[in-house]
């Protein structure tokens, strides 16, 4: 086991060198995994180097024209290899691990980009993607631009005069059960940045809430992703749920729906997301 | 029937080695080997590290699931029985979920000892533990009551489901997604380690189960009559339970939950060659292996370069076939 | 070479169903076990067949049942249950062949067909068991048992037929057919033990009768000696009157003042 870890570390070291050599040739040899990672790659003007992307990479529009290698946790070893990539830049958690092992054995460099839900995390992501693509200069500039825009957006949001609104992020309402976001989630991070308060802070991650817990959270606004499928409860359906119907949000009819990748991606567009969410929460 | 199935299995097996998202060709690779030329790295990895272990795993898991279904149906005298029914799969699933969620809490020596195999090993242990518990509950004075076992299996399944629910509640976002995908079943994580871990267990189980044909035929007349005609009923039940636990535990451990093979394959064979378990058990292993490799080929190529979880393919193909069989057979099947 | 039961007790939990029973059955004769519901006769035949744990001893041709391997017992006796269900759609002939699974008599390929013919089911071989009538199913089961113990006497001694209410669900013609086959088996030197519900069939076919009541033997002996007004009335707890078929010693049984009893029930 220890030997294997050592081997992996070595692979990383040598792989990093190889990547720099390859990058200078400026050919298509990269696969991007994770919507935020793909966004950053395009923001670094490196989209032309992409061979393929994963299912969650839906922005910008050019990304959607690339072949889809499937969901990031369910990659197909042969599917990925069929593009003969030399580098995979991936958000945290790509798998399954057996497939990653095979890809590494096939000399595919694998750069894992750390995840996080604040300004610092975004900077680290961009830095890591820039390092993996061997464009540290561009990455430094993008980091600085993104950081400035985000700081400005957060400052503007913080200047809101009104009392901070309590926001409940609802991931899904399947079967009448409210799946809500606690702390240490993208939703928690973006709500804070946009000048709101996460109505649920008793737990970490996404958990189903009981009807009473929703009442007790007393959200002023419900925040959802504007996706189709099982997430697409209409406002009427949403407010008809017993859990929601007793909340201030139901009384005032306040629902905010935003694109999931924009809202939770924590990438170059997060400043836009903060501004958009802030305006939606506090309409003038 | 054995012969036809074996020939079909070999053909499908070879075909599955030639099919994939990359353009690596089995034929040209073999020609290179014959010529004494070296294979490219890509050819070696795709054929030897991806397609071959996947084929081996598909053959073994398919055989294990179909054989387990046929044995369970004989043991419980019920053509709808399945390892899923008596909690063996649920127990294996609970083991896997426990491993996924609590992996961070495992002591260092354990993590070092099993490493990446933590989830499969836990699934295997879960399947075994649930079978042993089930057996304890339903055996009195050396006699196993099938009715009690069926009820205990339902209770065990519910318990495993509830515990899994608790674990899902305390799991974080990323673990939750792992759990969802694990539950769908896949051969996508195939490698030689898995083949060598599960292979011997499954092969021994399948061979031992093949010897149960006479005994399960006797059990079809009822346990009392089976004993009256000279069969050692307790030995048959012990052997059946242990082989199913071993084969199912190993299969679930390496591939997650793959449904319908265990029910549909024995049913199809009974339509063709009748209920006699002597040919049925061998044919079920062959047809199960054949169908799972076919299903995996579909899973691999239908949305390439991505792939479907194979559990979805078997459910989509298996559920309608199963309903059709029920409609055709309702007069013949004595439930 | 007998079946001897000595000081036999069988318990279900704390309840004693058979309490210190003694009797002996000899080959060449049909022994009927009669008695009211709950008297322990079904439990007795289950214990003899090795289905239940027991205290005391049950010895078949010199072997204690509890110590015998299933296969050895199967070579000595066949068992016809009251009713049988079948889990899968086997053909009638397959059911008979399964009776030969453990190897007893399996060397005779055509024995299953001969057994089917013996119970009058020639031509039924490839019919599905589940599609047969109750009477036909019971005859298939009898064919299965006969195939298992085909020769009533072998070099190792007599063989035995254990019949648990073999004709309860059958019409009178099939009752007579099956009882005749059982009696022929006994007359050829085999032993037959049958739990019987119908006292008149018992009178017609039994060589010996064991009358049970409350887990004990109330009387044993020839039908003409055992089937008396006093014994049967005591065993069944109602007034019974035993008569004899004219010009024979065959007893037949009617309730005392049958018409009055019948009208009282209405």
From TrEMBL, chain A:
Xref: InterPro entries:
ABC_Transporter_SBP (IPR050902), ABC_transptr_periplasmic_BD (IPR002491)
| Alphabetical list of CDD domains matching this protein | HutB (cd01149)
**What Pfam families does the annotation carry?**
Peripla_BP_2 (PF01497)
In Swiss-Prot or TrEMBL terms, this protein is called Hemin ABC transporter substrate-binding protein
For this protein's source organism, the top of the classification is: Bacteria, Pseudomonadati, Pseudomonadota, Alphaproteobacteria, Rhodobacterales
Q: Which domain of life is it from?
A: Bacteria
In this chain the Fe/B12 periplasmic-binding domain maps to: 29-284
Q: What species is this protein from?
A: Litoreibacter roseus
TrEMBL record, chain C:
Record-annotated ABC transporter domain positions = 3-239
The record's Pfam families line, in alphabetical order, gives: ABC_tran
Organism of this sequence: Litoreibacter roseus
**Origin: domain of life:** Bacteria
Query: Any transmembrane segments, and where?
Result: none
| Gene Ontology MF terms | ATP binding; ATP hydrolysis activity
Q: Where is the signal peptide?
A: none
Function statement: Part of the ABC transporter complex HmuTUV involved in hemin import. Responsible for energy coupling to the transport system.
Q: Which UniProt keywords apply?
A: ATP-binding, Nucleotide-binding, Translocase, Transport
Recite the lineage of the species.
Answer: Bacteria, Pseudomonadati, Pseudomonadota, Alphaproteobacteria, Rhodobacterales
User: InterPro entries per the record?
Assistant: AAA+_ATPase, ABC_transporter-like_ATP-bd, ABC_transporter-like_CS, P-loop_NTPase
Report the protein name in the record. Hemin import ATP-binding protein HmuV
């Amino acid at each position: 086991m220890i030997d294997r870890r050592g081997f992996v570390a070595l692979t990383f070291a040598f792989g990093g060198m190889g990547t720099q050599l390859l990058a200078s040739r400026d050919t298509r040899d990269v696969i991007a995994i994770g919507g935020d990672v793909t966004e950053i790659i395009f923001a670094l003007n490196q989209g032309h180097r992409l061979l393929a992307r994963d299912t969650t990479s839906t922005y910008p529009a050019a990304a959607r024209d690339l072949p889809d290698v499937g969901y990031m946790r369910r990659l197909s070893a042969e599917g990925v290899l069929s593009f003969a990539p030399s580098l995979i830049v991936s958000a945290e958690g790509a798998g399954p691990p057996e497939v990653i092992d095979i890809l590494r054995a096939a000399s595919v460099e694998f750069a894992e980009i750390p995840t996080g839900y604040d300004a610092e995390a975004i900077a680290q992501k961009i830095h890591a993607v820039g390092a993996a693509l061997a464009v540290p200069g561009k990455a430094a500039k993008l980091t600085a631009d993104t950081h400035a825009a985000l700081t400005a957006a957060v400052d503007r949001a913080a200047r809101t005069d009104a009392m901070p609104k309590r926001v409940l992020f609802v991931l899904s309402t399947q079967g009448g059960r409210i799946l809500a976001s606690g702390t240490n989630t993208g939703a928690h991070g973006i709500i804070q940045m946009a000048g709101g308060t996460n109505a649920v802070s008793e737990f970490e991650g996404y958990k189903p809430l009981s009807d009473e817990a929703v009442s007790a959270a007393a959200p002023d606004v419900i925040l959802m992703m504007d996706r189709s499928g099982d997430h697409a409860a209409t406002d009427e359906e949403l407010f008809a749920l017993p859990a929601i119907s007793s909340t201030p949000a139901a009384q005032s009819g306040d629902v905010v729906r935003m694109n999931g990748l924009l809202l939770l991606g924590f990438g170059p567009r997060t400043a836009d997301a903060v501004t958009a969410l802030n305006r939606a929460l506090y309409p003038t | 029937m054995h012969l036809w199935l074996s020939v079909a299995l070999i053909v499908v097996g070879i075909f599955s080695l030639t099919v994939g998202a990359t353009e690596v060709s089995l034929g040209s690779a073999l020609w290179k080997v014959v010529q004494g030329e070296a294979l490219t790295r890509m050819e070696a990895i795709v054929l030897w590290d991806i397609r071959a272990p996947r084929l081996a795993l598909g053959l073994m898991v398919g055989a294990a699931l179909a054989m387990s279904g046929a044995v369970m149906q004989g043991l419980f005298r019920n053509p709808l029985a399945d390892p899923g029914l008596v909690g063996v799969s649920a127990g294996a699933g609970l083991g896997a979920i426990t491993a996924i969620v609590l992996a961070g809490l495992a002591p260092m020596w354990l993590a070092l000892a099993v490493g990446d195999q933590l989830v499969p090993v836990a699934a295997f242990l879960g399947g075994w533990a649930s079978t042993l518990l089930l057996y304890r509950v339903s055996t009195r004075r050396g006699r196993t009551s099938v009715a009690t076992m069926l009820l205990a299996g339902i209770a065990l399944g519910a318990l495993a489901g509830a515990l899994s629910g608790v674990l899902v509640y305390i799991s974080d976002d990323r673990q939750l997604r792992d759990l969802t995908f694990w539950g769908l079943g896949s051969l996508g994580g195939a490698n030689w380690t898995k083949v060598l871990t599960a292979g011997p267990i499954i092969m021994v189980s399948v061979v031992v189960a093949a010897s149960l044909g006479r005994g399960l035929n006797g059990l079809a007349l009822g346990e009392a009559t089976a004993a009256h005609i000279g069969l050692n009923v307790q030995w048959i039940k012990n052997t059946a339970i242990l082989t199913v636990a071993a084969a199912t535990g190993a299969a679930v451990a390496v591939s997650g939950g793959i449904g319908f093979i265990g029910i549909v394959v024995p049913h199809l064979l009974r339509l063709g060659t009748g209920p006699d378990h002597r040919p049925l058990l061998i044919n079920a292993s062959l047809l199960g292996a054949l169908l799972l490799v076919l299903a995996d080929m579909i899973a691999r190529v239908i949305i390439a370069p991505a792939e479907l979880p194979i559990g979805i393919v078997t459910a989509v193909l298996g559920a309608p076939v199963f309903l059709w069989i029920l409609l055709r057979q309702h007069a013949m099947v004595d439930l | 070479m007998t079946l001897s039961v000595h000081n036999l007790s069988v318990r279900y939990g704390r309840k004693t169903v058979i309490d210190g029973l003694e009797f002996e059955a000899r080959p060449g004769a049909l022994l009927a076990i009669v008695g009211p519901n709950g008297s322990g006769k079904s439990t007795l035949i289950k214990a003899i067949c090795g289905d239940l744990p027991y205290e005391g001893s049950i010895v078949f041709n010199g072997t204690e049942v509890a110590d015998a391997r299933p296969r050895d017992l199967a070579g000595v006796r066949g068992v016809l249950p009251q009713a049988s269900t079948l889990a899968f759609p086997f053909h009638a002939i397959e059911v008979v062949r399964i009776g030969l699974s453990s190897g007893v008599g399996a060397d005779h390929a055509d024995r299953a067909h001969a057994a089917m013919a013996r119970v009058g089911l020639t031509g039924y071989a490839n019919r599905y068991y589940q599609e047969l009538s109750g009477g036909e199913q019971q005859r298939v089961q009898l064919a299965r048992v006969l195939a298992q113990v085909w020769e009533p006497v072998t070099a190792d001694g007599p063989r035995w037929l254990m019949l648990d209410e073999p004709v309860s669900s059958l019409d009178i013609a099939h009752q007579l057919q099956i009882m005749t086959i059982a009696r022929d088996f006994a007359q050829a030197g085999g032993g037959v033990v049958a739990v019987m519900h119908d006292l008149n069939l018992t009178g017609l076919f039994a060589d010996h009768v064991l009358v049970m009541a409350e887990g004990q033997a109330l009387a044993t002996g020839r039908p003409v000696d055992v089937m008396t007004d006093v014994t049967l009335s005591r065993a069944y707890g109602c007034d019974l009157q035993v008569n004899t078929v004219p010009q024979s010693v065959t007893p037949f049984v009617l309730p005392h003042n049958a018409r009055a009893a019948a009208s009282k029930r209405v």
